[in-house]
Amino acid sequence: MSREELAYKGAANNDEAEFPAVMLPNIPGRIFDIALHGAIGDGLTDNTDAIERAIEACSAAGGGRVLIPAGIWLTGPIVLRSKIELHAAAGALISFSRQFESYPLAVS
Q1: What does the alpha-carbon distance between residue 16 and residue 54 come to, in Å, rounded to a whole number?
Q2: Which InterPro entries match (predicted)?
Q3: How many C-beta atoms lie closer than 10 Å to residue 48's C-beta?
Q4: Mean pLDDT of the 51-78 span
Q5: Against a cut of 0.90, is the pTM above it?
Q6: CB-based burial label for 84 (10 Å; 0-12, 13-18, 19+)
Q7: Pairing of strands 64-68, 84-88
Q8: What percent of the chain has pLDDT over 90?
Q9: Contact predicate 73/42, CB 8 Å
Q10: Which residues, other chains included, contact 66 with Cβ-Cβ below 8 Å and sequence gap of 6+?
Q11: Contact 99/75 with Cβ under 8 angstroms?
Q12: What phi, psi does 22 have (nearest 5°)?
């Protein structure tokens, strides 16, 4: 039996199980503030496009942290990319739109 199978079996039996270490991604230290990409934290303005611009700029630079500062940030779907950390600062609230047609269903 492989190590992974043993770990799963132990977890299924509520026994103490040993799992393989999780490798954390290497996130560059650059910061991309959504407010500098046009987002407005008033809880009323749709910031979907501004957040997407911040994510795109971060991705184009090779990754980093997309910062959501304090405020109430209304948005639609957020799609992250490789080497990007989405960081909500203290006092930040992300409020997702109730326009459900904006959220595509994932086909699996």
Answers
A1: 42
A2: GH28_Enzymes, Pectin_lyas_fold, Pectin_lyase_fold/virulence
A3: 19
A4: 97
A5: no
A6: buried
A7: parallel
A8: 66
A9: no
A10: 32, 34, 51, 54, 55, 58, 84, 85, 86, 87
A11: no
A12: -90, 125
Q: Is 46 helix (H, G, I), strand (E, B) or coil?
A: strand
Residue 61 has pLDDT above 90, yes or no: yes
Amino acid 39: pLDDT: 98
What's the one-letter identity of residue 57?
Answer: A
pLDDT tens per residue, range 32-57: 999 999 999 999 999 999 999 999 99
C-alpha 64/C-alpha 77 separation (Å) is 20
Averaged confidence pLDDT in the chain: 88
Q: For residue 57, count other CB atoms closer than 10 A to its CB.
A: 15
| Residues 6 or more apart in contact with residue 103 via CB below 8 angstroms | 76, 77
CA distances 48 to 4, 63, 84, Å, are: 40, 19, 17
What pLDDT is attached to residue 6?
46
* Neighbour-count burial of 39, counting CB atoms closer than 10 A to its CB (0-12 exposed, 13-18 middle, 19+ buried): buried
